[in-house]
Write a structure and sequence with these properties.
Distance between the termini: 50 Å
CATH topology: Nuclear Transport Factor 2, Chain: A
Number of strands: 6
Number of helices: 3
Strand order of the largest sheet: 2-1-6-5-4-3
CATH architecture: Roll
Shape: elongated
Number of domains: 1
Helix content: 25-40%
Strand content: 35-45%
Order of helices and strands: HHEEHEEEE
Structural class: alpha+beta
């Protein structure tokens, strides 16, 4: 019986890690494709999103309002997360990932930035969600020259 319990625990760990990696992807996809339903689904109702020490959004409505302001400011956003690790061993399930962000300004110029996300996750109704995301070590690079390519059309994707 111990073998079956060990196997079940290992399977639960693998499924949890996969779900948390998918959560990180859904965060990026929701933001980049302006998918409010997907974006909202990654957060707990009482989540906290600290994009800097002086920009902290508490609760799902504030978090959704903040990303909608980003959508207004940036015609195109592209997030790429890497090095996503999760810690399932402590009292709080946590994770850490690095992010590179490219955003287009209204005048066509691009800004590259990024940083590290430090997360706390919570399972609600059988689904993992972000309970807290802190952006640490953020950086921005100077705007690049305007793009000469055609405007972005997310309907074509």
């Amino acid at each position: 019986m111990t073998h079956i319990k060990d196997l079940a625990a290992r399977l639960d760990r693998v499924e949890t890690e996969l779900a948390l990696h998918r959560l990180a992807y859904d965060y990026c996809i929701g933001a980049d494709h302006r998918d409010r339903v997907r974006w909202e689904a990654v957060w707990t109702a009482d989540a906290v999103w600290a994009t800097s020490p002086d920009r902290i959004f508490s609760g799902i409505q504030a978090i959704c309002g903040a990303v909608e302001q980003q959508w207004q400011a940036f015609p195109v956003m592209q997030h790429a997360t890497a090095n996503h690790t999760v810690d399932l061993g402590g009292p709080v399930t946590s994770g850490r990932s690095d992010v590179v962000v490219l955003v287009q300004l209204r005048d066509g110029r691009w800004i590259a930035g990024g940083g590290t996300y430090e997360d706390e996750y919570r399972r609600e109704d059988g689904r993992w969600r972000i309970a807290r995301r802190n952006v640490v070590r953020p950086f921005d690079l100077a705007p690049m020259a305007p793009s000469q390519g055609p405007p972005y059309d997310d309907e074509a994707i």
